[in-house]
Inverse folding.
């Protein structure tokens, strides 16, 4: 058996990943369900090993070069650094793209939670190159879920094996968050095909030579349809038309007219595309040939299939970059000698590594809690994908689906905000060196800065969460959440709440003043499984046991804070964060 060990990776902490996957989410028990019956934990570990190896050997080596020499246009062709194509070929050849798909479409039918965990290694090693794979997998999944059988054969299957790559073409210059305002038109040709005219802005992976073909999934409006978002349809627009036998035919009328130059994530080429400008004339006429997916005017709901998947993957990308930054900051803090202990300021003593300074430890602990919290939340969401597919009862499957819908905007936004903060702290731990381009942490920050913006900004996720998800189906998602938590994690026994756990939790709380509460959500859930896990871990290492204690002790932090607030309200003298004290004063009647 290949055992997952902590290792010295600067991508993802393997020990924490194993903890989340097996001890908390019990991913190994998924093999008791018929869909995953052929698998085992050994197999899951092998997939993680393989992904880590590809990430280190193929994705990481060109991460810096792709940032320094961003893709550029030469005679209408996009050129980029060597290494991108090889890395992606290795990923597709290993079968990782189709890992969670059915055997019928060439997949391995692995649990989604394992497939997602393996993808995190690639994102941590080189998020820009991983972006091409992510878009392609999401586009293929959308077609497999909503496309006609011939669309699946012709476009989706070649994407699953990396022969074709995919994009999502939603945004236009005048329509970013507000997709109801898109102006791209699709004119029916009477033979079941459409011709598209318009332009798309910000399209990642819109033009390159990395694959034989690029399959664009394009939102457009069929004239005469309803106004706004209800009139949006979805089309497959291949860069090169695909013949019945799968071979490539005429060049379609879709061209790149410019590239956007970005702050980070530079290795993923970002394009402005023109559809139907007449640059090419397939079938002797201008207009990009497109094929309708599903029903007319329902395009946005199909696109949400891709967007929801992409949103969780964006969260995963943010967590992975947070993790890469944290592990590098940790290594640097152990190696960088600077200053002496405050208790012993003898200048003739040797300098201590900066990890010995409490403020540096505070910054490391904050990063660790953001990253581990984010991974917990994301893998929990990934497990819900498996649950909605494979739980026994229909009601249980529906609950898992609702809960996933509710959590998706959080899974996108929370890691994007706090793991970006983790990257900022990683720079801070490096001091001036962190601000220099010689050290990778500044690139991680720039790469991660994209995540609160694309796939729906923070503001749009908030609107989605409160305006749609919380209230959908008579607000059943929130009660599904309660049911799921109760069934899955019965309360830990009071005996489990040790003094040591309380002390540990408060130490973490103190390490990130005013912020620790945001870092808690995933571990908050972990606590309920504490007793069982503790037994499972008997004989395990001390750090590991403490993590469970800390996770379980989260309510103590909250209870303590609530108690402190109450005491202060009664006039007692307690230490509160300035913000909490301010809130309290404002709330107190005059
Ligand atoms: C690097 C990169 C890659 C991208 N890749 C793709 C891609 O592959 N395919 C694709 O289709 N698009 C892509 N995008 C586009 C991306 O999804 C949009 O940038 C994003 O949706 C925001 O749209 P916008 O830039 O037009 O900003 P705007 O919509 O103009 O928003 C500007 C600000 O106003 C706020 N705002 C807007 N509307 C509201 C509202 N109703 N209520 C409250 N606040 C609001 C936003 O939150 C934001 O802070 C990419 C963008 C970038 C930067």
């Amino acid at each position: 058996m290949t055992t997952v060990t902590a290792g010295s990776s600067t991508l993802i902490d393997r020990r924490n990943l194993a903890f989340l996957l097996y001890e908390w989410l019990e991913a190994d028990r998924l093999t008791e369900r018929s869909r995953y019956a052929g698998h085992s934990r050994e197999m899951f570990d092998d997939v993680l090993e393989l992904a880590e190896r590809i990430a280190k050997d193929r994705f990481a080596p060109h991460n810096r070069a792709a940032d320094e020499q961003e893709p550029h246009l030469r005679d209408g062709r996009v050129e980029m650094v060597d290494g991108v194509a090889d890395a992606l070929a290795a990923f597709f050849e290993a079968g990782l793209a189709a890992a969670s798909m059915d055997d019928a479409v060439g997949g391995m039918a692995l649990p989604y939670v394992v497939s997602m965990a393996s993808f995190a290694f690639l994102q941590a090693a080189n998020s820009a190159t991983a972006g091409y794979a992510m878009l392609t997998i999401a586009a293929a999944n959308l077609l497999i879920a909503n496309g006609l059988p011939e669309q699946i054969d012709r476009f989706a299957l070649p994407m699953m094996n990396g022969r074709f790559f995919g994009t999502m073409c939603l945004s236009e210059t005048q329509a970013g968050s507000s997709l109801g305002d898109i102006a791209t038109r699709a004119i029916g040709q009477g033979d079941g095909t459409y011709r598209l005219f318009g332009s798309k802005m910000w399209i990642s992976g819109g033009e390159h030579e990395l694959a034989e073909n690029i399959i664009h999934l394009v939102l457009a409006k069929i004239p005469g349809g309803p106004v706004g978002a209800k009139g949006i349809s979805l089309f497959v627009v291949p860069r090169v038309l695909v013949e019945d036998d799968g071979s490539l035919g005429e060049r379609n009328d879709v061209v790149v007219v410019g590239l956007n130059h970005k702050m980070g994530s530079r290795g993923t080429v970002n394009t402005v595309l023109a559809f139907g400008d007449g640059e090419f004339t397939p079938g002797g006429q201008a207009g990009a040939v497109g094929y309708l997916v599903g029903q007319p005017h329902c395009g946005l709901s199909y696109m949400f299939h891709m967007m929801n998947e992409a949103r969780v993957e964006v969260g995963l990308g943010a967590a992975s970059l947070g993790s890469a930054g944290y592990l590098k900051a940790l290594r640097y803090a152990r190696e960088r000698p600077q200053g002496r202990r405050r208790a012993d300021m003898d200048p003739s003593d040797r300098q201590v590594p900066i990890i010995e300074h409490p403020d540096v430890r505070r910054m490391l602990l904050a990063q660790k809690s953001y990253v581990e919290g984010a991974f917990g939340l994301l893998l929990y969401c990934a497990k819900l994908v498996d649950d909605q597919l494979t739980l026994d009862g229909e009601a249980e499957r529906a609950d898992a689906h609702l809960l996933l819908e509710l959590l998706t905007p959080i899974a996108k936004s929370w890691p994007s905000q706090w793991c970006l903060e983790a990257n900022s702290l990683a720079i801070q731990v490096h001091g001036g060196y962190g601000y220099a381009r010689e050290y990778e942490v500044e690139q991680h920050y720039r790469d991660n800065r994209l995540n609160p913006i694309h796939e729906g900004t923070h503001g749009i996720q908030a609107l989605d969460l409160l305006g749609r998800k919380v209230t959908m189906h008579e607000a059943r998602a929130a009660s599904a959440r309660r049911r799921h938590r109760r069934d899955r994690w019965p309360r830990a026994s009071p005996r489990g709440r040790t003094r040591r756990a309380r002390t540990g939790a408060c130490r973490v709380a103190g390490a990130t003043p005013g912020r620790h509460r945001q870092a808690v959500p995933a571990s908050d859930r972990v606590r309920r499984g504490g007793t069982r896990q503790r037994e499972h871990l008997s004989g395990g290492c001390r750090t590991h046991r403490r993590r469970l204690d800390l996770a379980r002790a989260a309510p103590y932090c909250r209870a303590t804070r609530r108690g402190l607030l109450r005491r202060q309200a009664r006039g007692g003298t307690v230490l509160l964060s300035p913000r909490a004290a301010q809130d309290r004063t404002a709330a107190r009647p005059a």
Notes: Residues 1-7, 490-540, 552-565, 567-590 have pLDDT under 50 and may be disordered.
